[in-house]
Amino acid sequence: MIVITGAxxxxxxxxxxxxxxxxxxxxALTRDPLRARLPTGAEAARFDPAxxxxxxxxxxxxxSALFLHAAAVxxxxxxxxxxxxxxxxxxxxxxxxxxxxxxADETNPIYVMHADLEERVRRSGLAPTFLRPNAFATNSxxxxxxxxxxDTVRGPFAGALTAPIHEADIAAVAARALLDDGxxxxxxxxxxxxxxxxxxxxxxxxxxLGRDLQFVEVPPEDVTADMFPHVPAGMLPAILAAFAxxxxxxxxxxxxxxxxxxxxARTFTEWAGDHADDFRA
Length: 281
Ligand SMILES: NC(=O)c1ccc[n+]([C@@H]2O[C@H](COP(=O)([O-])OP(=O)(O)OC[C@H]3O[C@@H](n4cnc5c(N)ncnc54)[C@H](OP(=O)(O)O)[C@@H]3O)[C@@H](O)[C@H]2O)c1
Hints:
2 domains; 34% helix; UDP-galactose 4-epimerase, domain 1
């Protein structure tokens, strides 16, 4: 049994779908099993990181591996890891972040959050695999409301360069790490296949929709929280500082997705095609 935390999220949902497709037993943790719309074959179990944890043992009954999502376990990382170990889990694949790298600003809250949970995993006695992706293609959902409302998208840093990674590729690496031998003790740095600027991402989404979208750059001081709805308010300054540093700078690009899965990482154009409906009114 593989227990997935964050199972209704971008990566967790794709992972649950990929694992159930090969009939791997999956227990999907969610705050609301009734609304989770999980893939057929996945067992839903309730876990709310904001609530006082009740008895966690049933979540790990018969489990052998854990997919760990930081926000989905919140303050309960140690309790979840201990219950997992007690229940028979021996391997944990953690969705960490590419921010964990040599020379990183170790005071950045995003660094702190992921480094802290990585350390808890290392201390848990479970064999770890760390997935360290850089920017997700799903970050572009931040523009969905503006795109539904019209053809102009306002935001900062038109020239910010990332190599956005498709959530299905992160999930595919996670699935291999969970199902195959040989990933224990490894950290996989994950990116999409090519650098794409913010403005190019908007144009690619426009192409997928058959519309001509324009990106209008606003100065960072005019950025409002609604432009970054997926970012917790306290982390917005750190995110903006990180973006500012990527303008015109070639991003890290790794071939890890292809090495691990045997299939090249999906392009941003493919991602926009897969998600065109998410940007339609
Ligand atoms: N975005 C990036 O560019 C990036 C880059 C590197 C690493 N990451 C890592 O990847 C994570 C995002 O993964 P994702 O996109 O798959 O996640 P997501 O779509 O945000 O989903 C996370 C799931 O966790 C559950 N959850 C429980 N408590 C939550 C809380 N307080 N906040 C958010 N979700 C909560 C929710 O499920 P229920 O409602 O069903 O409980 C939600 O569906 C980041 O948090 C970070 O750790 C992201």
